[in-house]
């Protein structure tokens, strides 16, 4: 935005006025991306990839997290870390969020028709938690696709859970009343107090991958993860570690009593068909070796 502003000043007032409205939304690249994003749903460029969650000691698949992907015709796959915040600022997250809810429920129904009951988690952002029709949308999608609400989990980040406490608490209670499970994502990166955590009707807590990453190197990370697992268990929460990439991280997490694991060590986010084969056969046929970067990861 700053660069665009400087350009605008150089070009004089007239041109500045023309771009003014768009400039409020960010840089020129953002403006272009946003223009494309507005059409992404109707152009069928959005997709949900599914990353498995693995039982820490049993090794079987316990469910999958739906992660949004945007296949941009020119830029390739754009990360949700880029376009979700953009969509939030532009007021588009509602539309994207509804698409995710609908698509996840449709997929669960399709899997069930193939004889596979797969638990699915979707991510909800702080902005979505302020939308008055969120819970109604979720309830309607579940009914439309005849999905048991208990099969669906909504992940909200610890910081989203903290913000605007009154409204958020009311909405998450409504969600849970609808039979959906609640998960606290990216735990450890926000500032949730213990007393607040107790008031959240969650059934799962996900340890942020920054702690998992430091497990082997830093003994304090190990102490933190140990404490978080004990805390979560004392509140009857299931603990999932995200971003597990190495065998030694897996071993440490198992020793500390973590319930479920998720990360490239087991599987990257994958298209539904591949996930289904993966979950059914227990092992991925020709599963690629875990690598640090992937355009899908
Ligand atoms: P998140 O919910 O914490 O998802 C975990 C992220 O870590 C995903 O990135 C996943 O691909 C990545 N990941 C999983 N295992 C590993 C690993 O072993 N190593 C590393 N380095 N990364 C791993 P992704 O898919 O790019 O999503 C980023 C964030 O975007 C998500 O973080 C979530 O906050 C948000 N997001 C994704 N899909 C949606 C959606 O449908 N709606 C909303 N509101 N947000 C979404
Ligand atoms: Mg998540
Ligand atoms: Mg997470
Ligand atoms: Mg995370």
Could you spell the SSE succession in H and E letters?
HHHEEEHHEHEHHEHEHHEHEH
The counted number of beta strands is: 9
How far apart are the termini?
A: 28 Å
Give the strand order, joined by hyphens, for the main sheet: 1-2-4-5-6-7-8-9
Low-confidence stretches: 1-23, 284-297
Helical fraction: 40-55%
- What does the main sheet amount to? 8 strands, mixed, barrel
Query: Can you tell me the overall shape?
Result: globular
* Helix-strand category: alpha/beta
Molecules bound to protein: ligand C2E, magnesium ion
* Rg value: 20 Å
Tally of helical segments: 13
Average of per-residue pLDDT values: 87
Strand percentage lies at 15-25%
Account of the protein in words:
The protein is of the alpha/beta class. Helix content is 47%, strand content 18%. It has 13 helices and nine strands. It has helices spanning 2-11, 13-23, 28-40, 80-89, 93-113, 134-144, 158-162, 165-177, 194-199, 209-214, 219-234, 247-255, 272-281; strands spanning 46-55, 61-72, 76-78, 120-124, 152-157, 181-187, 204-207, 238-241, 260-261. An eight-stranded mixed beta barrel has the order 1-2-4-5-6-7-8-9, surrounded by four helices. α12 links the parallel β8 and β9. α1 (2-11) runs antiparallel to α2 and α5 packs parallel to α6. The longest helix is centred in the middle third of the chain and has 21 residues, at 93-113. The chain is globular, with a radius of gyration of 20 Å. The protein starts with a helix and ends in a 16-residue tail after the last helix. Residues 1-23 and 284-297 have low confidence and may be disordered. This is EAL domain-containing protein. Residues 30-283 form the EAL domain. It comes from Aquincola agrisoli. Residues 282-297 are annotated as: Disordered. Residues 291-297 have a biased composition (Polar residues).
């Amino acid at each position: 935005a700053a660069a665009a502003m400087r350009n605008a000043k150089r070009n004089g007032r007239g041109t500045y006025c023309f771009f003014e409205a768009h400039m409020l939304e960010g840089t020129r690249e953002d403006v272009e991306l946003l223009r494309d994003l507005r059409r992404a749903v109707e152009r069928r460029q959005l997709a949900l990839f599914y990353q498995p969650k693995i039982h820490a000691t049993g090794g079987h698949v316990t469910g999958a997290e739906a992660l949004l992907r945007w296949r941009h015709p020119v830029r390739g796959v754009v990360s949700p870390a880029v376009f979700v915040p953009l969509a939030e600022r532009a007021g588009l997250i509602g539309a994207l969020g509804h698409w995710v809810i609908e698509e996840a429920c449709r997929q669960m129904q399709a899997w069930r028709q193939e004889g596979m009951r797969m638990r699915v988690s979707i991510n909800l952002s702080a902005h979505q938690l302020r939308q008055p029709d969120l819970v109604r949308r979720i309830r309607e999608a579940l009914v439309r696709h005849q999905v048991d609400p208990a099969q669906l989990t909504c992940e909200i980040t610890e910081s989203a859970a903290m913000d605007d406490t009154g409204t958020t608490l009311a909405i998450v209670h409504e969600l849970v009343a609808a039979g959906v499970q609640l998960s606290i994502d990216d735990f450890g990166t926000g500032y949730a107090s213990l007393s607040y955590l107790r008031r959240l009707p969650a059934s799962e807590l996900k340890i942020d991958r920054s702690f998992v990453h430091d497990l082997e190197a830093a003994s304090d990370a190990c102490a933190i993860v140990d404490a978080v697992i004990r805390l979560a268990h004392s509140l009857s929460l299931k603990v999932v570690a995200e971003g597990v990439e190495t065998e030694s991280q897996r071993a440490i997490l198992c020793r500390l009593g973590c319930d479920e694991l998720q990360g490239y060590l087991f599987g990257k986010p994958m298209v539904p068909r591949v996930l289904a084969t993966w979950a059914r056969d227990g092992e991925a046929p020709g599963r690629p070796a875990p690598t640090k970067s992937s355009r899908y990861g």
